[in-house]
Write a structure and sequence with these properties.
The chain is built from 24 helices and 17 strands. By secondary structure, it is of the alpha+beta class. The strands form 4 sheets. Strands 9-10-11-15-14 form a 5-stranded antiparallel β-sheet, with helices on one face. The protein is globular, with a radius of gyration of 31 Å.
C-alpha cells in the first residue's frame, strides 16, 4: 500500500473508468444463430446444418442431431466443430425429403464448462408450420422448464467451497505482506515505540498459528480442486468422463495448472515451515508463496464467465482476476484477523495491546475499504456485462442473486466504515478499560463481516452455476408456460404462441415427488371457458408424445380475453386429477420494449459518464475517510470530485444515442395483422442477398437510421419521433413484422411505405440485412 493515499485513490479512479469502458460479453455456450435458421422454410435440402454459439465449445462433449417428426435421426452422425471457428458446430445431412425437421443440440462451454441445450425446427419444401409436428412445442416446454430449474445443489456447493478455500489460501499470504509487516514497522517507529524484542516474540507466536491455518487452507483447497473436477465430469456425462475431461478439454488444461500451482505451494510451505516457525520475516519464500497464490487465482479466473469476453481481448479475464484477488485480500485478511491475530496481540504487554490492535485495524480497514470498493465496481461491471438490462435483472435467477450480493456487499462496506471511523480512533485514544470494550466490539464486527463474506461467496457459487441474465432473459417469449401441483402430480401447461386462434398445446405430466414423467394416462383433456362471455365450454383431447408430454394443435382460445383452461388427467384405477389455469388470450403477443434505462446502459457514452460519476463518489468518500489529508486538501479533493461528477452527468445528458433509442411510436401504429406476424423470409440469407440488402439499406434507410442502424443518420435530428435504434429493435420483432413495416410504413412517424418503390424480393433482402444489425458477427452462408 502506498504511503500516499492519493495514489491509491488515483488507481481506484482509473480502475473505475476501466470497468465502465468495458464492452458486453456473453457467457455460457448459447445458440446465437443457425443455418438453416430457426423456423425457416428451405426450398431445397441443406447438405450441412451450421450452429454458431456465443462461446467456444468443447467438440468432444457437444453434439448436434437432426430429427424427423417421429424422432428418427437423419444426419450423418458426424457432428464436429468447424476447423476455422471454435464457436461453430456442424453436422452433415443427406438429401432430406419434403417435411419438418428438428435440430437438437447439447453443448459444453470450453470457457466456463457449463452445459446448455436446445432445439429448433425448419422445413424443407412447401410445408407450412400449420401442418408441422407437435415436437416443436415439446422442445419449447422442455427447454423453458430446464431454464427455470435451479442448478443442482452439488454444483453450487462445489463452486462455493472452491472459491472460499482459494480466498482462505491467497488471503493468508496477502495478510502479512499488505497488513502485518507494514503495521509492525509503523508500531516500531511510533513514540513510545513498541520494542523490537516484544514485536519479535509476538510475531513468533502469530507465525505458529498462521502456519496451521495455511496447512488447513492447502488441504481444503486440494479437496475443493478435486471436487470441481468431479462436478465438471458430472456435468459432461458422468464420473466415467473424468479421463476425457482431463485430457481433451480446456477445463482440464487449466485444472492441471491449478494442481501444479497447488503442489508447488505445498512444497514451498513444507520446506520453509521450520524457518517461519522460528523467525517469520519478509523473505523470498514468503514472496514466492504470494506469487504462487496469484497463480492459483489466475487459474481460477481462466474458467470464469468473464473469460468469455472477446472484445476487447483479455478484459473480462483481467476484471475477474482483480475481483477474485480483492476478495482474497479482504475476506482472507478477515479470517487472519479473527483466527491468528489474537495470538500476536496477547503476546504484547497489556498497555501495548490496544495501540497495536489500533494500528492493525487502521491498516486493514483502509485496505479493506478500497478493496471492497473494487469489488463493488466489479459488481457494477457484472450488472452491465452479464445482465444487460433492468428487465433481466428482476426477471432471472442470476439477477435475483446479484441483487442479494449487492445488499450483502453494502453491509460489508458499512462494517468497514465503522471500523475505520469508530474502532480505529477508539483503540488509539480511549482509556484501557474502554479500549478493551472496543476491542471486543471489533471482534464481533469482524466475525459478522466474515459471515457476510461467506454468504457473498455462496451467492457467487449460485451465480456461476446459472446462465447470466443477459442470455437467460427472453424479452419476447413465444410460449405461455404455467405449472401447478394437484394430488400427486405436477402438471405443466404450455401454449405457443399463446394468442387468439390456432395454438400448440402441451401438457407435461410428472410425478410431484421426484419429477419423473408419467406417460400412462388414459385421457388428458383441456376444457376452456371464456370468463367474459357465455360461450359454453370447449373441450379438446391431447395425444401422448412420450416422456410425459401430451400435445395437440387446436383453436381452443378463440376470442380475446380471460380464459379458464382446466386440465383433466385420468389414470387407471384412480380418481381424475383436475386443476385450472388462468390464461389471457391476446390478439398478438405483446412486444416487450426495453426501458429507457436499459437502452441507456447499452451505450458506451453513457457507461463512460456513469464511470466518471462512480469515480467521483470514490474520490469524495475516500477523502473524508483518509485521516492524513489536511482540511485544505479535503476541500480541493471534494471540489475536484464534484467537477468529475458534473462532467459525467454532462456526458450522459448529451448522449444522443439514448434519445434516438427511446421508443416513441404508439403501439396502435405498430400493429401488424395476425397472419403476417409469423411469416418467414422466403429469401435465403446468402452472401449475395445480404449484400443486396445492405446496398438497399444504405441507399434508402441509412439517411435516417444511420449506417450502422443506431438511429443517428444525418436526418435523425430533424425527425419527430426520432428513428429507432435497429441494433436493439431488430432482435425484438419477427421478420414478418419488419417486412410489414418496410412495405407499409409506420403511421405517425417519418417511416415511409416502400411497397411501391421496392419489389417483394428487395424488401425481403433489406429485412434480412436489418436482422444482421442485431447480431454480434453476422456470417452469411454461401448460395445453395
Amino acid at each position: 500500500m502506498s504511503r500516499n493515499p492519493r495514489r491509491g485513490l488515483f488507481f481506484l479512479i482509473l480502475l473505475g473508468l476501466f470497468l465502465f469502458a468495458a464492452l458486453p460479453a456473453l457467457a455460457h455456450a448459447n445458440l446465437l444463430r443457425s443455418d438453416p435458421a430457426a423456423n425457416s422454410a428451405q426450398p431445397v435440402s441443406p447438405t450441412v446444418v451450421h450452429l454458431w454459439f456465443s462461446e467456444h465449445v468443447e467438440p468432444s462433449f457437444t453434439n448436434v442431431r437432426v430429427l424427423t417428426p417421429a424422432g428418427a435421426q437423419v444426419d450423418k452422425s458426424d457432428s464436429h466443430r468447424a476447423p476455422n471457428d471454435a464457436k461453430e458446430m456442424d453436422v452433415s445431412v443427406s438429401d432430406l425429403p419434403r417435411g419438418l425437421y428438428t435440430v437438437a443440440w447439447n453443448a459444453i462451454s470450453a470457457v466456463d464448462g457449463h452445459a446448455t441445450s436446445g432445439s429448433f425446427a425448419f422445413t424443407v419444401g412447401d410445408v407450412p408450420l400449420s401442418e408441422s409436428s407437435p415436437r416443436e412445442i415439446v422442445s419449447l416446454v422442455d427447454t423453458e422448464l430446464a431454464n427455470r430449474e435451479p442448478p443442482p445443489a452439488y454444483q453450487v456447493v462445489a463452486r462455493w467451497l472452491n472459491v472460499l478455500t482459494l480466498v482462505m489460501l491467497a488471503g493468508a499470504f496477502a495478510f502479512p505482506l499488505f497488513v502485518l509487516f507494514p503495521a509492525l514497522q509503523s508500531a516500531s517507529m511510533q513514540k513510545p515505540a513498541i520494542s523490537a524484542k516484544s514485536i519479535d516474540a509476538a510475531r513468533g507466536l502469530w507465525a505458529a498459528r498462521w502456519l496451521r491455518l495455511v496447512w488447513l487452507s492447502l488441504m481444503l483447497y486440494a479437496l475443493a480442486t478435486l471436487g470441481v473436477l468431479v462436478m465438471q465430469a458430472l456435468t459432461s456425462g458422468g464420473v466415467q468422463t473424468i479421463p476425457r475431461v482431463l485430457a481433451g478439454t480446456r477445463f482440464g488444461t487449466f485444472w492441471w495448472l491449478r494442481v501444479i500451482g497447488l503442489a508447488a505451494l505445498a512444497v514451498l510451505v513444507l520446506r520453509a515451515r521450520t524457518q517461519w516457525s522460528t523467525d517469520f520475516r519478509l523473505d523470498r519464500a514468503l514472496l514466492l508463496g504470494g506469487a504462487l497464490s496469484l497463480w492459483l487465482v489466475l487459474a481460477q479466473s481462466l474458467n470464469s464467465h468473464n473469460a468469455a469476453l472477446d472484445n476487447p481481448p483479455l478484459l473480462g479475464l483481467l476484471i475477474d482476476f482483480i475481483h477474485t484477488l480483492g476478495t482474497a485480500i479482504w475476506l482472507g485478511g478477515l479470517l487472519q484477523l479473527a483466527l491468528s491475530l489474537p495470538a500476536l496481540v496477547r503476546a504484547l504487554e497489556s498497555n501495548q495491546q490496544g495501540r497495536m490492535l489500533g494500528i492493525l485495524v487502521a491498516r486493514f480497514s483502509l485496505i479493506a475499504f478500497l478493496v471492497v470498493g473494487i469489488i463493488v465496481a466489479s459488481g457494477v461491471y457484472s450488472l452491465v456485462v452479464q445482465v444487460g438490462s433492468i428487465e433481466a435483472l428482476f426477471a432471472t435467477l442470476y439477477g435475483d442473486a446479484l441483487l442479494v450480493k449487492i445488499v450483502l456487499v453494502g453491509a460489508v462496506l458499512a462494517i468497514a466504515a465503522f471500523n475505520l471511523i469508530v474502532v480505529k480512533p477508539g483503540l488509539a485514544q480511549a482509556a484501557m478499560q474502554r479500549s478493551l470494550r472496543i476491542a471486543r466490539l471489533f471482534r464481533r464486527a469482524t466475525w459478522f463481516e466474515i459471515a457476510t463474506g461467506v454468504a457473498i461467496l455462496l451467492v457467487v457459487g449460485l451465480m456461476t452455476s446459472v446462465a447470466p441474465a443477459r442470455s437467460a432473459y427472453n424479452p419476447n417469449p413465444q410460449l405461455v408456460l404455467q405449472t401447478q401441483r394437484v394430488d400427486d402430480l405436477q402438471l405443466t401447461l404450455g401454449i405457443a404462441p399463446g394468442v387468439v386462434g390456432t395454438n400448440d398445446f402441451d401438457v407435461k405430466v410428472q410425478e410431484a415427488a421426484d419429477g419423473a414423467p408419467m406417460s400412462n394416462a388414459q385421457v388428458v383433456r383441456l376444457l376452456g371457458t371464456m370468463q367474459e362471455m357465455d360461450m359454453g365450454t370447449q373441450e379438446i383431447a391431447l395425444t401422448p408424445q412420450g416422456e410425459g408430454h401430451y400435445t395437440l394443435r387446436g383453436d381452443l382460445l378463440s376470442m380475446v380475453g380471460r380464459w379458464k383452461v382446466e386440465v383433466l388427467v385420468r389414470r387407471p384405477g384412480q380418481y381424475d386429477s383436475r386443476t385450472t389455469f388462468a390464461i389471457t388470450a391476446l390478439s398478438q403477443q405483446p412486444t416487450a420494449e426495453p426501458s429507457y434505462l436499459s437502452l441507456a446502459l447499452q451505450q458506451p457514452e453513457v457507461l463512460l459518464g456513469l464511470g466518471l460519476v462512480f469515480a467521483a463518489f470514490g474520490i469524495g468518500t475516500a477523502s473524508v475517510l483518509v485521516g492524513r489529508l489536511q482540511t485544505r486538501e479535503r476541500r480541493v479533493t471534494l471540489l475536484g470530485a464534484l467537477g468529475v461528477a458534473l462532467l459525467g452527468l454532462i456526458v450522459v445528458w448529451q448522449n444522443p444515442a439514448v434519445v434516438t433509442s427511446a421508443p416513441s411510436t404508439s403501439a396502435a401504429n405498430l400493429f401488424v395483422p395476425e397472419p403476417l406476424r409469423f411469416i418467414r423470409r422466403p429469401v435465403p440469407g446468402t452472401t449475395e442477398n445480404l449484400a443486396a440488402g445492405r446496398q438497399i439499406y444504405q441507399n434508402n434507410c441509412a439517411v435516417c437510421h444511420g449506417p450502422q442502424g443506431k438511429g443517428n443518420g444525418p436526418l435523425a435530428a430533424t425527425l419527430n419521433p426520432r428513428p429507432v435504434d435497429l441494433t436493439v429493435h431488430a432482435r425484438l420483432h419477427t421478420e414478418g413484422e419488419l417486412y410489414f413495416w418496410v412495405t407499409n410504413g409506420i403511421k405517425g412517424s417519418a417511416m415511409p411505405p416502400w411497397g411501391e418503390s421496392l419489389n417483394d424480393t428487395q424488401r425481403w433482402q433489406v429485412v434480412g440485412f436489418i436482422r444482421t444489425l442485431a447480431l454480434p458477427t453476422p456470417a452469411p452462408t454461401s448460395a445453395p
